[in-house]
Amino acid sequence: MKHLFTILMICCGLSTQAANKAFEKLTELNKCWLEQKDVDIHSLPAFTMQSEKEWIRTHLSLVEKTLRTRSMAHLNEAQKHNRMKCLDDLNQYWHEGNFPINDEYSYRTPIFIDKYNNFCAVGYLIKASGNEHISRMIAAKANLAYVHQMNYKEVFAWANENGFTEDELAWIQPAYPPVRHTKGIGKGTDGEIFELYADNVNGKLYVGGNFTMADSSVTANSIAYVTETGGNYTWHNLGSGVNGIVYAIAEYDNKIFVGGTFTQAGSTQVNNVAYWDGTAWHDAGVAGKVNDLIVYNNELYAAGQFDIMGGLIDVNFAKWNGTAWLPYSGLIGHINTMEVVDNDLLLGGDFIYGIAAKNIIKWNVANGFQPFGNSIENEVNDIEKFGDTVYAVCTRTAANDSALINKLKNNTWEDAAPGLMMFQFPPDPNRSFKTLCAHVDTFMVAGDFFLSPMVGNYAQNTYSFINPIGVANWINVDSAVNKMTVFNGELIAAGKFQYGNAGFGWGNVKLNHITRKSYHNPTSVGTISKDNHAITIYPNPASSSGTLILENGFHADKVMIIDISGKEVASYNIKDKKETITLPQLATGNYVIETFNANGEKATQKLMIK
Fold it and tell me: Where does the pLDDT of residue 359 fall: very low under 50, low under 70, confident under 90, or very high at 90 and above?
């Protein structure tokens, strides 16, 4: 009986957590959920990892259900009739699902009418009642405003005529997340991609993996390259390719070296490494799997799990001398990745070096292998430097694994995102981080995962680990990402996936294993397009708990500070065109300053806290 009671208590606890997480998600769509005294959060449906579009449906359906149960004793008969008619219209609206699409602003915001003529819920109700001109007027003057920020007598008159309070209209109105677009690179490939190598000097993106065709018409056999002109991408082969899988690509000595597991390149017999000289393939083989190739100090290195001289086991690391590979032994296991950092070559994988190092180590010609102050416990899949910090990402082997994103500090590896994986949903130990990439001022991590690092902003297979506010820089795809790089200024991701925009519900895009990230207005946090009011803030960067001077020319009377998750961290009422405000204690990073005037017109500016 005690065991049964314990199980029941655990089930109740899990149910409560799921309900609370659903409530947190709903409050991100609309903060007015916090004000609804007649909503029992324990009766909410359990949290599920559904698209943003489906969460908007859920929000509107729950609001409709509650509004139908509220007393109408204070309303006259006309108001009662109009209210129920509007709720019927709301039901039709959320079933149809033609919600505004936020593809011009890189933060969550209301949109009364988008550029595709999709109306928000409140705008739709006003339109359905025969007052479309009111909706159009609001969109022209305050398209991004919340209901409580609007000051138009037409809105309040409409609400009264149709039996709604201003608070109820505010509860109906959700804010829409930024849509991270994925765009195809031609028609992609017909199989999984494992490697990308960007030659930005010569304008070529090399692609390696396990495929036969590229762009549906180019016979490529696991290795190809892409060129771009005016936004048009063209695929090219390198002869007839190789007969196996390509995991590594590097350019060296005006040749393209590829490594992996294959025995033939073109018509040439090879052994897992070959190079293309522009017209033909040549052997540069080793006995075993090659995972990475890199140029360090103007010399070519290979890493993986291979043998070179017949008797050596677990060499795994070697240098090309122009005709043969020179081995460096000492690591037991296999190497997945190499990265040049300052004057050293960092190696990561699943290996040991005596008793001094595990899974990560540095090497240089003068000193050989040099352990760090500590090891990384999980298998290392990628290493990347961002700013002045080196990061490493790992394979997840157990549901309670932590420290899967590590950073190097004072020669010691430490968890770069404590607790991040505890939000992974579902708790699948096979999902892992595989690759890192710096893109402009954003640091991306990708792999095979569902991640909910902040309420509502869940990521599927890519996530902007370090992300300035105002840049919607991660994308969602339907399966694993194996590699990322930057080509012609765009973030390129490749892997096992076939569709993009997965998880947002605004239409999937067929990608076939490779995509480029694209979104509108990428360097701006957005302003109202019709009014385009300007604000000036200084100093910027500012100091936490310091003062900030704000100037505006459109009679703003309220200022809000929004953090990276889209949550309000402070708000102020202002009176003058030039105001000095005292900042709260804020963490170092990027924020958004939003200002509103009495009509709900809005202007936005980035703020950096140093």
Answer: very high
Query: What are residue 483's DSSP bridge partners?
Result: 494
Let me know: does 571 contact 584? Beta carbons within 8 Å: no
The tokens for 226 are 């892409």
Only one residue has tokens 């009377």, namely 557
Please state the separation of Cα 131 from the chain's center in Å: 39
Placement of tokens 């803030």 in the chain:
537
Percent of the chain with pLDDT over 90: 55
Nearest to 479 by CA among 507, 504, 498, 459: 498
> Residue 438 is encoded by which pair of tokens?
């710096």
Please choose, from the candidates 69, 67, 45, 60, the residue with its C-alpha nearest in 3D space to the C-alpha of residue 95.
60
Q: How far apart are CA 79 and CA 7, in angstroms?
A: 50
pLDDT of residue 323: 92
Contact 446, 497 (CB under 8 A): no
CA-to-CA distance for 182 and 320, rounded, in angstroms? 38
φ, ψ of residue 83 in degrees (nearest 5): -60, -45
Nearest-5° Cα angle at 570, 564 to 576:
120
β-strand partners of 514? 494
DSSP assignments along 50-105, one per residue = --HHHHHHHHHHHHHHHHHHS--TTS-HHHHHHHHHHHHHHHHHHHHT----B-S-
Query: Can you read off the two tokens belonging to residue 373?
Result: 């102050």
Give residue 426's pLDDT: 52
The structure tokens listed for 459 are: 């990521």
Q: Give the count of alpha carbons within 13 A of 589, CB side only.
A: 18
Collapse the DSSP code of 454 into the 3-class scheme (helix H, G, I; strand E, B; otherwise coil) and give the result: coil
CA-based end-to-end distance of the chain: 57
- pLDDT confidence of residue 421: 52
8 A C-beta contact, residue 59 and residue 67:
no
How far apart are alpha carbons 310 and 303 in whole angstroms? 17
CA angle 345, 347, 349 (to 5 degrees): 170
- Measured CA distances, 322 to 218, 316, 319 (Å): 31, 18, 9
| Pair of tokens at residue 439 | 């893109």
Interatomic CA distance for residues 204 and 224, integer angstroms: 10
Residue 569, both tokens: 């961290």
Dist CA 337 CA 349 (whole Å): 7
What would the two tokens of residue 470 be?
């105002």
Considering 67-81, 144-158, 421-435, 455-469, the range whose residues carry the highest mean pLDDT is: 67-81
Q: Are 142 and 597 in contact (CB under 8 A)?
A: no
Question: 552: closest CA among 583, 571, 574?
Answer: 574
Global pTM value: 0.69
Provide the angle, in degrees to the nearest 10, between the axes of the packed helices 77-96 and 153-161.
110
Spatial distance between the Cα atoms of 503 and 305, rounded to a whole number of angstroms: 37
Coil, helix or strand for 447?
strand
* pLDDT for residue 101: 84
Distance CA 593, CA 607 (A): 6
Amino acid sitting at position 394: C
Give 352's pLDDT tier (boundaries 50, 70, 90).
Answer: very high
pLDDT of amino acid 234: 97
Residue whose pair of structure tokens reads 């973030």 in the numeric block:
491
- Give tens-digit pLDDT for 313-322: 568 999 999 9
With beta carbons less than 8 A apart as the criterion, state whether 129 and 78 touch. no
Rg of the chain in Å (alpha carbons): 28
The pLDDT mean for the chain works out to 85
